[in-house]
Amino acid sequence: MVAKASGRPSPPPLYNRLPVLRAERGLSRQDLAAAIAVNYQTIGYLERGEYAPSLDLAFRLSEFFGLPIEAIFSRTPFIPLSEEVYGGKK
User: pTM (2 decimals)?
Assistant: First the structure.
């Protein structure tokens, strides 16, 4: 962990599958933002890992996609779907 200017360590990064989930459903950032009642820029910040969602926002995303929160967000990088399904073979 890297220490912030305040001397406290920064939290580990939070990875997410939002771009993949949006693409699977043919949603723009604006579409998703409207569906969960946030600004579309919030979706961009989340996708880039520049913003960690509140618990409420994580639950709204979970409910919207019909997935558990841990299927959307993780403290460790997600394995690309191609590797999960095909074992990294093309």
Answer: 0.80
